[in-house]
Every structure is written in C-alpha cells, then in structure tokens.
Amino acid sequence: MSNGYVAHAAGYVDNEGPKIVSSRFVHEDGHTLARYLETGGYVGLRAALAKTPSQVHDEVRDAILLGRGGAGFPAGIKWGFCPPGVWPRYLVVNGDESEPGTYKDRLLMECDPHQLIEGCLIACYALGLSQCFLYVRGEMALAQERIAEALNEAYAAGYVGKNILDTDFSVDIVLHWGAGAYIVGEETALIESLEGSRGMPRLKPPFFPAAIGLYGKPTIVNNVETLSNLPWILENGADAYKRYGSEASPGTRLFAVSGHVKRPGVYEVEQGVTTFRDLIYGDNFCQGMREGHDLKMFIPGGGSAPWFFEDHLDLPLEAKPVGAAGSMLGSGAIVIMDDSTDAVQACLRVVRFFARESCGKCTPCREGTTWEEQILRRIYDGHGRPSDIDMLLDVADNISPGPYPAAADPSQGLEAVPFPPKQTTICPLGPSSVAPIVSALRRFRPEFEAKITARASIPVSAG
Amino acid sequence: MARLNAENLATANEILSRYPVKKSAMIPLLHLAQEQDGYVADDAMAHIAELCDVTPAEVVGTCSFYEMFKRHEVGTYLVNVCTNISCMLLGGEELLHRLEDKLGIKHGGTTEDKMFTLEDYECLAACTEAPCMQVNYRYFHRIELDEAEKVIDDLRSGARTDIPPHGTLGKVRQHIPTGRSAGIVPPEQANEAPVWLPAPTPEGEGS
Ligand SMILES: Cc1cc2nc3c(=O)[nH]c(=O)nc-3n(C[C@H](O)[C@H](O)[C@H](O)COP(=O)(O)O)c2cc1C
Ligand code: SF4
Ligand code: FES
Fold this sequence. Notes:
The complex is a heterodimer of chains A (463) and B (207). Chain A is of the alpha/beta class. Helices cover 38% and strands 10% of the residues of chain A. In chain A, helix 7 (141-156) links the parallel strand 2 (131-136) and strand 3 (172-177). Chain B is 35% helix and 9% strand. The mean pLDDT of chain B is 95. The chains are: A alpha/beta (463), B alpha+beta (207). Residues 82, 84-87, 123-127, 130, 132 of chain B line the site of FE2/S2 (inorganic) cluster. Flavin mononucleotide (FMN) is lined by residues 67-71, 73, 75, 94, 96-99, 183, 185-187, 221-223, 226, 427-429 of chain A.
C-alpha cells in the first residue's frame, strides 16, 4: 500500500525512525517462527539465560521500561514488589486492549507474536514466575489464532515449556481469551476474569497483584507492548535503549493517531523528544489536519484522558509534563478532532462508553455514569434543562471530588489541574467518565448552553 | 440445545488441563459451547459447571457478565459496527444506520431469516482504520457504505464463505505437546522456589 502504510498490518505506518517493537511489521510472515528466527528472534532470551535472573531484572530496571498499558509505571520497579519467598508467582499478560482510541497491542499480537512470547519468557526467567497466562481480548480472533500458532511452534522447537533451550528454566505459557468487557483490562478485574468470575475490580489495597494476585499469589500484570520491548532490551542492553527517547522516558512507544488527520495510523515514536505538534503535523507522521479544517481539540491518551487543545501542541510525549498540564498519555491513543466536531456529541459518545462498561460494583460509578449519559443525551437531543449543566457537574463530583484534572483555559483565566483525579470508587473507570465532561464544559460551555436555550424556543404541546 | 458433544468434550478436557484451577477454564469453555451451538445453551452451562466443579449458578453468573456470550439464538453472522469516538468522527454512525436500513432491523435485532444480528459496538481497537466493523469478529477496516452492503449481499448469497458461523473465534487452538509441559499444578502444590533461581542470599533475593 502507498503512503507508508503496510497492507497486512492495517494502519501501521513504516516511517523513518528507530524501530524497537515494530521492526517485523513490514514482513508479511513476521508472525512465523521461521521469519522470527531469521530476524534476530530469541536472541534476547539466549542473552537473558546467560545471565542470572537478578541480573536480568537489573537490566530491565536500568532501562526504565515504563508500562505501556495506561499508568506508565516502571516495569523493573513493579517487578520488585513480589514478596520474597512466596511461591508460586504468576505472569498475566494484559492483551485486553479496549480503551477508546487505542490500537497497538492488537498489531503486536497479530504481526509479531513471538516477540511477545519471548518477552514473557524473559520476565518469567527474571522473577521465577512458574506459569504465564496470555489474556487476549475476546473480539480479536486473528490475534488469538496467531498466538496459538506461535505457541504451538515455540513449544515444538523447545522455546517454551519444559527445559527451555536445554536449561533448567521451565515455564508454560497458556493462551487465554476474554469475552467482551472493557473493565477486564483493569488488572485486578483481569485476574478475577482469569479465575473464571465476573470481571469486577478488587480493592487496592490490599489486592495489589504483585502481592495478592491470581489465586491469591504474587502476580505480575504487564501490558503486551511493555513485554514486547524485553527481547530488544536484553539483546542490546539498557544503555542502548536509553539512547532513544528522553531521560525520564527512554525508548520508543507505539502511538495510534486517529480522527481528522491526513494520515491516521500507528507510529513507533521516540518518547519524550517528540511533541504532539510533530506527531500531528510532521511529514514523517500524520501530515496535518484534513484539508480545510483546523484543530479543535484532541484526546492525548485514550477515552479516559482529559482533552487537550491548540495550546498543548508543543508538549513532549512524556508522562510528567502531560500530567502537569492536566491529562495523561495513558494507552498511547491520540484522537484528533477538527472544527467540524460537535463537542457535546463527542462528550456524550465517550461518556456513553463508560456508562455501558461500568461493572456496577460501586454506586457512584454505576448510577453516576448512567445519569451523566442521560443528561448529556437530552442536552444533545435538544431537551436539556437550564439546570442540567450544574446537575452534570454535581454527579461528576460524586464520582470524582473536584477539582477534576483539566487543561488550563486561558480565556477563562483557569489554571491546569494536574492528573490523576480523586475517586470515590474502587477503580478509575468511574472517574474516567468525568474527563470528557469537565474538558468539554471548560472550553465549550457555550455549545452546551446553546443546545439548552434552543429548547426554550420549541413550542411545548400539552401531554 | 445441547451439552458438549464428544469431540468438544475432549477439547474441553485439554483446555482444562492447562489451568492450575479448573474454574479458570470457564470463559474458554463457554466459548467452546458457543462455537458448538451458535449461542450458549442452558444445558451447556450445566455441563460446564460439572467440568469446572462449580454450581450452574456460578456459570450463569460469569456468562451473563460478558457481552460476547449470547444466551439465546443470534444470526449466523454477527455484525458489529463501531460507533465509538474515532469511528464516530469518520462515519461510524452512518455506517450503522446504513446497515440498519439494509437489513431492515434496528441494532440489537436479528433478521427474520436468522442470517444477521446487528450490534452498535464499542471501540474495536482499529481506531486509525475508522470506520470499521467486524463480522463474527473478522475485521473490515476503513469500510465504505457500499462495500459494507456488498459484504452483506455476498454473505447472504453464499458468494463469500471465508467467515465461519457465529461462535468460532481463532481457527487454530493451542496444543501443548505431550511431555513438553513444564508441569501445571494447583497453586498450593507449587510452593517452592523454581529450580532455576539461585538459592536465596541472606539479604533476600538480591532484587
Ligand atoms: C478501566 C481500566 C482499563 C484498563 N484497560 C487496560 C487494557 O486494556 N490493557 C492494558 O494493558 N492495561 C489496561 N489498564 C491498565 C492495567 O490496570 C494495568 O495497569 C496494566 O495492564 C499494567 O501493565 P503495564 O505496567 O505493563 O502498563 C486498564 C486500567 C483501567 C483502570
Ligand atoms: S468504578 Fe465503576 S467499573 Fe470500577 S469497580 Fe466501580 S463500578 Fe466497577
Ligand atoms: S473507536 Fe472505532 S475502533 Fe476504536
């Protein structure tokens, strides 16, 4: 396909720049063991096995490998939270990718499953994890198929299972698949689901998975992309990894840029040194807004992230500055909206998602997200009441006591409120529903008011 | 409809053998039942309860939580149109409405001939490829309205046969060859440090 797209890896753009996790996406047979071995496959595992487990852990800690699932927590530090002497320990791979705007784990699973498997093996070796469960989102039939094929090949060739590469390192990797529930992406809900239960989050503390996880045992939960970085890090070393990106966010990261840009796609990007402006307007990336339109707003980190605007374009793709400006990089999902977008409609659509996906375990989220959706729906449909905006903010405040994280609005003289939000709920899903509401109301309140006053002019008939 | 048939029971037992705790196999087994019958039948849930050593109510509890499990018959082809934010921006709702008109049903409904069920779906992890849809969880990226209609026509006429009926996900299953497993045991029986870890130093594990 033209314009940098790769036909068999839908949406991936093979642009210029370092490739750490996406190097095999250009190969149509990149998912096979044969191609994997031809292109440096399982070299990282061999390098790991030549070291002691704690040396491997040190290498990952030195690389400052930040989690790619949403929270951005360094993997090496999380790995250190397993209580010593408690066995067995498990690895659960989070391949549940369902955050609105997020599209990169599916590519990694479909196009390079062996890289992920190798990453899992490295983590299991380093931490003494005795079994790994690879939890793939239910709706991803091809990813499940590719991983099953890859595991079958890897078992047959001696890379997975008993006495891996003739060492005394042995671990089973089991493909598991979900059945449609966004909340299962939250790590404790993922564990509940893997135990065969309804996917409802557990309270933290005490249920931090590294201490009390699967079957009550220490469990490391890592995202697909996080683990996919490990083969490269072990092959090339932490120092080489840190040559890319910035000091606080080394390496590269996959960003899915969707919406109203000329070349939407999945890009491997150096973290920290690239800005939103580079990504949206750069020739090497999305090549600007679609013809005849200007940027209105963008979501920097998936549906759960507060919105950004024109004034945030020069922020680097790095957790700290983005957090200080009132949002998050989240799952590497950037949604670009131009001036044709109706702010109320966009807000309603994201809120509707959270209302639909609330697991129902806590009242503020279960009831609150439903109220939010209904109020927004009637405003959007032209049936809004003058008191609706206050009611919306009041419901939001019950889920996430304010001030809720938000970008600065210089026109209103409002400062940025830094991320993360406060919550009255068990997990962050409830508070996430507040992100689009506060964002849209801070900047586009007149759009809401216009829809509400328009109603006043509609003649009311009896009954 | 039915309990798992003999062939699927063998598959179920193989799946069960990969988990240290039987109940963990519940979701994969529910998928297996759905593959067999096109939906998850009550008898199949009772059978799964026996296999996982839990009560039938626990199986219903789990089954009813997850959107993909259908406890009543649906169409041979389940068409999921994404209308979440990235797709909404590029015509996801128009696509849904076009297919509603084409099929003569509202989303959530099934055509009279039981060929199609249409759903208004959440983000499918194809956001850069908007608008997108799935038929039985097979992707259609950046799909035009007319193309979507043609997919329906081709499935209806039998011109297109590459999509298996509702219930079948990945066509390849994992198999751990005999003698290659590291050994899957209940957690309470795996309470020793793995052999490849060096003996702990006095300060702990050195990590
Ligand atoms: C509501 C919710 C949904 C989430 N969905 C996902 C997901 O789909 N994939 C993912 O990797 N992490 C998801 N997370 C984050 C996980 O809880 C967890 O932090 C992550 O998998 C850890 O992996 P990492 O440290 O490698 O990033 C979600 C979190 C929340 C609160
Ligand atoms: S915040 Fe919402 S999704 Fe999270 S546990 Fe509570 S009810 Fe469930
Ligand atoms: S928003 Fe449609 S696939 Fe993500």
